[in-house]
Specification:
This protein is an alpha+beta fold and about 110 residues long. Helices cover about 30% and strands about 35% of the residues. The radius of gyration is 13 Å and the shape is globular.
Length: about 110
């Protein structure tokens, strides 16, 4: 199994919601099944969104500052996220800087 296929299999099978976001565009690059179930989107819908799209308006400025700080390799914070249904939930996000397919990105683990 090649490294990309191994990553995809491990990533998608995790019980904890996870995603990868491009730090420049804030576009979702990958999202696992657990995140799809929690947020209510299909994979295609989720991958067409940006991190701004699931945040409450109050958090967007903080979100952009957090993504701009590449020096912060690991961060943990409580955010307000919006599901497809429009419901807002508070989640703890632990994120890690990584290179993903040649892009600067953040891998995020979501806890309700």
């Amino acid at each position: 199994m090649n490294p990309e296929a191994l990553f995809d299999a491990l990533f998608d099978s995790q019980a904890q919601p996870m995603w990868v976001v491009d730090t420049a565009s804030l576009r979702f690059l990958a999202v696992n099944e657990a995140a799809l179930r929690l947020y209510g989107y299909t994979r295609e819908e989720f991958l067409s969104l940006t991190a701004d799209d699931i945040r409450s308006e109050e958090d967007i400025g903080d979100l952009r500052r957090a993504f701009a700080d590449w020096s912060n390799n690991v961060s943990q914070r409580v955010w307000r996220h919006r599901k497809k249904s429009g419901d807002v939930m508070r989640v703890k996000v632990t994120s890690f800087s990584l290179d993903f397919a040649g892009r600067r990105a953040r891998l995020a683990l979501i806890e309700e």
